[in-house]
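Hi P.,

Sorry for the delay on this. The queue was packed all week, but I finally got your sequence through. Input first:
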Amino acid sequence: LAGGIILGVALWLRHDSQTTNILYLQLGDKQAPNTFYVGIYILIAVGAVMMFVGFLGCYGAIQESQCLLGTFFTCLVILFACEVAAGIWGFVNKDQIAKDVKQFYDQAFQQALMAESESNNGKAVVKTFHETLDCCGPDNAIAVITPLWRDDLCPKKDSFLKKLTESSNCHKKIDELFSGKLYLIGIAAIVVAVIMIFEMILSMVLCCGIRNSSVY
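Then the structure:
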């Protein structure tokens, strides 16, 4: 069940419309940073393997097989080590992911403001960011000014006043998007780690119980 939950959360994060709209963008020959997906693929792999390993442990318990329970314990130790490594990697790179996406957005925004922006797809990339995140401009000052002189780049607002009051900083929106997703991944990883610790303890207790009962 834990493996299925992790797999479900990972697949939802992988196919979430906001992240896919942004991370599949391409600016000329440059692809949007997809470091975020590395963590998602690790979660998908862990969830799938956990489902298989859970079945292995359940079958080993029913058959009272020390060999299967020992294999189950070994697999859990390996999975736990991988999860800890992925958690450390995610903690180290949590700010870098948003930073890379913001740099990609800034490059597209600069190209979109240039006269020759039609020759590349800078305007299309920027509009996708703006429409997906409902924002405009890389920082607060430009976010307020940009809709006034570049209506073609920003989400349409009903009035001049709304343009001034509702224009939102895209850098802030990018931070919110990825920090929220990474927070969810972190919670899922902690829950799974706790479950795995209990699984390892119980599998060893059961294995020792089977060994002792076979003596009698």
